Amino acid sequence: MAPPAPRTGDAVFANVERVNAELFTLTYGAIVRQLLTDLEEVEEVNKQLDQISIFRGYNIGIRLIDEFLTKSNISRCVDFKETAEVIAKAGFKMFLGVTASVTNWDADGTSCSLVLEDNPLVDFVELPDTCQGLYYCNILSGVIRGALEMACISPEPNFWCTHQGMCLVRLATHPR
Amino acid sequence: MQFFGGSEISPAPSAPTGSGNNAHMMYIFNRNGVCLLYREWNRPLRTLNAQQDHKLMFGLLFSLKSFTAKMDPTSVEKGNLGVPQLPGQGCSFHSFRTNTYKLSFMESPSGIKIILVTHPKTGDLQEPLKYVYNLYVEYVVKNPLYVPGTPIRCDLFNTALDQYARSLA
């Protein structure tokens, strides 16, 4: 019988192949910069980072879920609280190397915030005044949305994931 | 492993030695019933055309899953027969054996179903099926040219599968 699956990503993170953090940060920064130059509208850029297109978050998410499942051996989560915990602890740890904390639960337990203290995507980044509305890490919300959608039976999205600042992602589910 | 990154796939589960010609067929379906892959190594009798064969297989698995969940004597809550179960929830069926073959099945929480048909004397294949899922992730999911939800056309993946299938006793 296999040992009980670790609920944190530490063990997995140790085994998984890694890339240079600065390369990752700078590549992401270059993508956002290029999008801003091409699209000029901050709203458009936010949408692009999240959407279904070749490089964007959703497309990454639908592939990422399979890798996460094979590497982490985690069985199905029982409820939304557990899902949020697993994403914050195991998921972020495995792919970004940092854990997020789950805070700000609302009254019926249908939405929460995932706070990233130490977000590798925003190292060295400063937003100028012209881009104040930019959701710099919106790709993360696309990724989470894509991954969760593949892990559930229904084709319509049951989860909403929106960006709220450099290090904060808000995760919500349909009230049952 | 050679071309796409250099990540270490955890070593394949050791299989007892045998003639190496044990595996007959393999199917991989996604959650919508699209047959992503069909590999055949040893199938003397074919009764249906490919489309019907895939549909029949997918339908069979769907029904078997519902049935096994409904008949589970240990679970307290049972859904109504026919209601689709979330993969991984409730009890899941592993294999069935006839006098001429054994069919082993694994489903991931993301809905990827892997079916392997082998010689009836084969032991439990859950570990090998997990390894195949791992191969799928490494060669197919991580392939930027692959569109999720479409049939797999990846030579490296096919080669790795063939090699692994030959090593199963």
TrEMBL record, chain A:
GO CC terms of this entry: endoplasmic reticulum; Golgi apparatus; TRAPP complex
SUPFAM superfamilies with a match to the protein in the record: Ligand-binding domain in the NO signalling and Golgi transport
Cell compartment(s), UniProt: Endoplasmic reticulum; Golgi apparatus, cis-Golgi network
Keyword list, A-Z: Endoplasmic reticulum, ER-Golgi transport, Golgi apparatus, Transport
Function: May play a role in vesicular transport from endoplasmic reticulum to Golgi.
Known partners and oligomeric status: Homodimer.
PANTHER family in alphabetical order: TRAFFICKING PROTEIN PARTICLE COMPLEX SUBUNIT 3 (PTHR13048)
Similarity annotation: Belongs to the TRAPP small subunits family. BET3 subfamily.
Official protein name in the record: Trafficking protein particle complex subunit
Originating organism: Nelumbo nucifera
Gene that this sequence comes from: LOC104609685
UniProtKB/TrEMBL annotation, chain B:
Protein name: Trafficking protein particle complex subunit
GO aspect biological process, one term: endoplasmic reticulum to Golgi vesicle-mediated transport
Database matches in PANTHER family: TRAFFICKING PROTEIN PARTICLE COMPLEX SUBUNIT, TRAFFICKING PROTEIN PARTICLE COMPLEX SUBUNIT 1
Superkingdom in the source lineage: Eukaryota
Coiled-coil blocks: none
Subcellular location: Endoplasmic reticulum; Golgi apparatus, cis-Golgi network
Gene designation: LOC104608277
Recorded GO CC terms: endoplasmic reticulum; Golgi apparatus; TRAPP complex
The protein's assembly and partners: Part of the multisubunit transport protein particle (TRAPP) complex.
